[in-house]
Each structure stands twice: as structure tokens, then as C-alpha cells.
Amino acid sequence: MANLKEIKRKIGSVKNTQKTTNAMKLVSSAKLKRTEELAKRSRVYAEKLTELLNEIAQKMQQSNADGIDNIYFRDGKNPKKVDIIFITADKGLCGGFNSQTIKRASALIAEYQAKDVKVRLRAVGRKGIDYFKFNNVELNDEIIGLSAAPDFKQAAEFISEVAASYVNGETDKIILIHNGYVNMITQEIREDQVLPVDTSKLELNTVSTSELEVEPDDDDTLLDALVKRYVEYTMYYSLIDSLAAEHSARMQAMDAATTNAKEMVKELTVKYNKARQEAITTELIEIISGVESMK
Amino acid sequence: MELMKLEIITPNGAIFDAEVKQVTLPGAEGEFGVLAKHATLVSLLDTGVIVIEKADGTEVAVAINSGYVKVDEEKTTCIVDGAVALSGEDGDLAKALEEAKTLLKSTESSSTAIAAAVSKVEQIGKSF
Questions:
Q1: N or C: which end of chain A has fewer CB within 10 A?
Q2: Candidate CATH numbers 3.40.640.10, 3.40.1380.10, 3.50.30.20, 3.50.50.60; the one for domain A42-250
Q3: Whether B42 and A49 lie within 8 Å, measured CB to CB
Q4: Any A CB within 8 A of B10 CB
């Protein structure tokens, strides 16, 4: 009999879990929709900004035979000091979302350390911070709260500080790692080189821009301002992208959990019924044999 | 009069995307107007007001804090950080004016530029 009661209790608790996971899934899917919309809208801005940067860089390269002479366009091939920024979620329960980013960050750190490059880590998001703290890895920056609610101003402040340490030579390269959103069921780790601006990615020499007039006349002023904005925006966009991916990952994880719970309830119910029937059969046999013996 | 395409894009998406006759922009080196077939140009934008003359001749103003503009023959693209549209169409002009002023004052540009922009916003507010 105790077995019967136990199974019943188990069914109840699994059903409760199922309710929770289902609710979390619904919340995530609602949030995902909102974040996706935000990402879609800001993508236009990011695209135009990159396009503009592209053209300016192109113009400078055409007018200057030795390539672009600007601090933000230095050659980043053999860095001595690298800053790695990585974005994780503040919360768990989203499948392999956080661990994937952490894994990639760890791999990158190991890769650079093997080449004798000094690596500094800057973490955004509680999960990444917790992981590296637990493993006694020093973190230069720990930002909590930004990855759950991306704010342009806060993101810009943070990345400006990092960019400043690039300008004054404290670091040679800034890399940003985050888990990006592809579609409802896929996320993809993205690794962006923030600074120096990766000229190999720019589509140079596609259009002649020799007639491009620039105001203020000093190219550097414009380029500096533009790169600054580009860097800020890259950071902000990565945060949004990461948030969208987080929600989609959580949605998936919670969906799987709900399905599993449903199956478990089914199995347990079968078990419960079997146990009940068994109990009834035993009782019947007892009664019948009791009656038989009295005859 | 020939028309050209104008886009105003903020981090929250495009707020203006239509054919216009003319647009006046607050460039870092002074205000300038752009008509269709303008030479290619890239400029920093200062705190100020973008005045758009739409295809039907009506004027719309957009207060911005800072940004860039890229002009070529057929298209003008403004990439701005923050913008508030001031137009007589939506009833809440007073609120828009207030928002525009807050936006302008929150920037880091020189106080003269801000003052000029704010007075322009006020003027536009009176004209409706």
C-alpha cells in the first residue's frame, strides 16, 4: 500500500514541475518575441553604421598608400595582450547556452596563453562570472544585470572603458564572445574582433569613393567618432543578440523538460494502475481464501 | 521638383523612410540643406533639428542629439543616436516638444549648439 501512496505523491510532484517548466517556456517565448523585435529594429542601424564605416575606411585606404593610418585600424595579427569579453546569461535553466559560451571562452584563453599572449577577461552575466570565479580565474570586469536587460548607455560606458585601454596601449586586441540567435531552435557562438577594426572583413574597393566629401574635413575626427559608435553598437547589439538566444535556448530547454515530465507522468500512471490492480487482486485472493477456509 | 529618398535611423529602428523634396541638417560645421542629386558627402551631425520638406510640401522637424549623415545622389541616410519627431499630425505635440528638449539637453555638445536647437524647437512648437 505504501508503494501506491508513494507513486501518487511522485505523480503530483512531477505534475508540479511540469507546470513550472511550461510557465517558464511561455514566459520565454513571450520575451523572445519582444527581444527578436528589438534585434530586428537595431539590426538596420548596425548595418548602416557598418556600411558607413566601410566607405570611410575605403576612402582613407585609397587616399593613403600605406593603408589606413589610424589607431583603431592597427594590425592585430600578433597581439601581445588580448582582452576577451564574453557574454553569458544571468540565469540558468537554458540548456547548454551558458556552458557553450564558457567553453569557447576557455578554449580561446588556452589558445592565446599557449602563444604567450597575456589575456584579460571581462565577464558580462552572472553565470560566466560564477564559473570562472569557481575555477579561480581572475576577472577584470564583472557585470551583472546587463545581459538580462541590455541598455545602450550602460553598454556604451562599459565598452568605452575597454576601448580606452586599447587606445592607451594596455591591450592590443579586444574580442567579444557571445552566443547569438539564429532562429527559434538554433543558437550559434559568435566571436567578434571589436578592436582593431578588422579590415579584412570590410569589403574594400567595391565602389570608387574618391568623390566622397567629408565634413569635418579632418578624416580622423570623423573616423574616431564613427569607430567609437561602431564599437559601442557592436557591444549593445551583441547583448541583444545574446538575450534573444538565451530566451530561445530556455524555451527549448523548458519545452523538452515539459515533454519529459509529461512522459514521466504517463509512465508513473501506468505503474500506479498496475500497483492498484495488484493490491485489489491480492485483497480479493485474501477474501476468497478466507471464505474457502471457513467452509 | 525632383524627389530623393530620406532615411532616419535610430538604434530603435527607422523612424523616417520616404521620398522628400529637401532636408536641412545640423552638420558639425554648420547647417546645410540637401536636395536631390547632391554630391556624395559624409558628415558628422551635431545636436540640432532636422527639417524635412516632404513630397506634398509639408514640413516635419526631427530633433536629434548626434549622429552621422551619408548623402549620395539618390539617397540621404541619417544615422542618429536619439531622435524625437515634431509634427503637427500626432496630437501630442506638447509632449513631443518636452521630449525633444530633454533629449537635446542631455547631450554633451556645446551649450550654444544646445541653446540654438532648443530655441528652434520652441519656434517650431509655436508655428503649429
A1: C
A2: 3.40.1380.10
A3: no
A4: yes
